[in-house]
Amino acid sequence: MQWQPSEEQTQLADALQRFMQRDDGFERRRAVAAAGGFSAEVWAILTQIGIPALLVPQAQGGLGASVQDGLHALQTLAPALPLEPVCASALLATQLLAGCSHSVEAQTWLARLAEGRSIATAAVFEPDAGFAMTQPQTRAERTADGWRLHGIKALALQAQFADVLLVSAQTPQDRLAWFAVPAGTPGLGLRGYTLFDGQRAADVQLEGVALAAPARIDLPGQGPALAEDLRALWLAALCMEAVGLQQATLDATVAYLKTRQQFGQPIGRFQVLQHRVADMGMELEQARSMALLAANVCTARDDPQRMPLLAACKARVGQACRFISQQAVQLHGGMGMTDAMQVSHWFKRLTVIELWLGDSDAHLQQVADAGALHAAA
After folding, report:
1. Are residues 358 and 242 located together in one domain of the fold?
2. Which end of the chain is more exposed for a tag (fewer CB within 10 A), N or C?
3. Can you give the residue range of the structural domain that contains 252?
């Protein structure tokens, strides 16, 4: 699949490239990770570039760009491994809020996100439920003047830095509804931790969290569709980010093979290593095609093949994540897993991407199940 970025996407990518090349980005990221996993300075720079405002509708002060614009920006930023919530807030949470544009609460948060004054993240996963989204055990009970939430959420990305959590819960009338829960609300507790790739996440405790009626941001019956849209976009985002990382990993490996000397010559001259690099390149190009397909179909809500196609894309990209990252570490030798080598950090992020929302085997099973249902029909 061939694809050419638009002029606007190219300009944004150029700005992001300049940002990544400034101030020794890799060392800066290591410092941010050691200091807690979030840099207000970096977030301010990204705000100046326009990342938080990118997908916010113009009516709320945003740029009103397309989802594909956001995915292209995420792919460009991927090699920098930003610890700030580019995907969680500027892409996923923003798009979720934009899907609730009727809600005054959602409009208020969107305006704050566009200005970079607030950060949002989705709290959708639950303990012992894996990456399932559609049947939350978190309960939202009606009260005289609003809602009261009870439950536990897991793996809420960058929740420690968020000003609002977008929480999925079941109500007496709806099996899935969405609530905007401001940070610091009484009864809201967070237990933060660091993931394998250095990203921060948190488990969320909701103990009788009292909310006003407008805190519910979706319409009755709309919740499941919003959850599916969120999952679709998340799958596409993982695929696009992975391709950006895979390209950087391949480039770094080729550069290393050209400079590492063995037996009086660069090891890149050894044919067996050239073959392994060629295999990495083929995996990358296949993954790139599938990532572009994912970016194209993720917003096609009315397409019954959207989720099976995205599952197929994630499966193929995940296989490439595993192959390219492992080959890169092996070709770098023992240095490949040291903290001082950027390729080791790319390896960790690619490993998490392959597992997030389900690994390749799980998505292949989804494709097979969808095919069986289609054949039975």
Report:
1. yes
2. C
3. 223-376
Do residues 311 and 368 touch, judged by C-beta distance below 8 A? no
At 179 the three-state DSSP class reads strand
Type of residue found at 65: A
SS3 165: strand
User: Do 361 and 283 fall within a single domain?
Assistant: yes
Show the CA angle centred on residue 99, arms to residues 96 and 100, nearest 5°. Answer: 100
- Edge-to-edge, what's the strand order for the sheet holding 200-212? 139-142, 146-157, 200-212, 188-194
**Which parts of the chain have pLDDT scores under 50?**
1
The dihedral sign for the CA sequence 223, 226, 228, 234: negative
The pLDDT, as a whole number, for residue 25 is 76
pLDDT tens digits, residue range 219-261?
A: 999 999 999 999 999 999 999 999 999 999 999 999 988 887 6
Residue 42 within any structural domain of the chain: yes
151 and 89 in a common domain:
no
Side chain identity, residue 325 = S
What's the token pair of residue 59? Answer: 């009516």
Dist CA 366 CA 131 (whole Å): 14
User: In this structure, what token pair is assigned to residue 14?
Assistant: 């150029």
d(CA 345, CA 198): 8
Q: Is 260 helix (H, G, I), strand (E, B) or coil?
A: coil
Give residues with Cβ within 8 angstroms of 171, minimum separation 6: 139, 140, 141, 142, 177
Residue 97, exposed/middle/buried by CB under 10 A (0-12, 13-18, 19+)? buried
Rounded Cα distance, 315 and 338, in Å: 28
- 193 and 338, same domain (yes or no): no
Tokens of 286: 């296949």
Distance, in Å, from the CA atom of 25 to the CA atom of 19, rounded to the nearest integer, reads 8
DSSP 339: T
Q: What is the pLDDT of residues 324-340, one digit of tens each?
A: 999 999 888 877 778 88
Tokens of 314: 């994630």
pTM: 0.95
Q: What is the pLDDT of residue 1?
A: 47
The two tokens of residue 278 are: 């060629």
